[in-house]
Amino acid sequence: MKIGIFVHSQSGNTARLALAVTHALREKGQEVDVELLRPIGKVHPGIRHVELKNVPEVDDYDMVMLAGPVWAFNASPVVVSLLHQLPGLKGKKAMFFLTSGFPPPLSGWNRAHKKIKDLLEESNASVIEGESLFWGFYCGKKRLDAAVERICRKVSG
How far apart are CA 10 and CA 26, in angstroms? Predict the structure, then answer.
C-alpha cells in the first residue's frame, strides 16, 4: 500500500512521531512518503484559515495520514485548513494522529479528534479511527513505540 503522511509540527514532537511511524510502516513493507506542511506566515492556536506553501497531491496514495498537535484544546489549524483545501479523498483510506502536552482527557483531544474525523468523513474518505500520544514533559521510547505500534496495527487492520 502507498501511504502519504502529512504533518504539522510546531515543537518537533509530532514530526518525531510521524518519522517513527514512517520507519515502522516501511519495515512492514509499506511504501511511505512523509511531508511537513509549511504554512505561509505565523500560525497560532485559534487562527481560522492557514494558507499553505504546499498542498499535497494525494491521487497516487492508497491511504492518507494526517498528523498534528492539539493546540489550545483544538485541532491544529494547519491540519484543519489542509482538509478544507485537499481534494481527492473520496474513497481513500484516511487516518490521523495527534500529539499533546497533556493527557487526552485534559488536552482537548476529544474535540480535536472529532473535528478532524468529521472533516475526513465530509470528504467521503474511509476513516480509520485516530490515535494520540501524550508527550508531557518527557515521552520515553516505550510510550513512543506503543503509539507507533497502535498506529501500525490500525493501518494493517
Answer: 25
H or E, element range at 32 = strand 31-36
User: Range of 29's domain?
Assistant: 2-156
* Three-state DSSP class for residue 130: coil
Domains of the chain: total = 1
Question: Is the CB of residue 22 less than 8 Å from the CB of residue 83?
Answer: no
Best CA proximity match to 152, nearest among 42, 46, 38, 65: 65
CATH number of the domain that residue 138 is part of: 3.40.50.360
- Residue range 81-132, pLDDT digits in tens: 999 999 889 999 999 999 988 877 777 888 999 999 999 999 999 999 999 8
Do 85 and 57 touch, CB atoms closer than 8 A? no
Question: Can you tell me the distance from the alpha carbon of 123 to that of 86, in angstroms, rounded to the nearest whole number?
Answer: 9
pTM across the whole model: 0.94
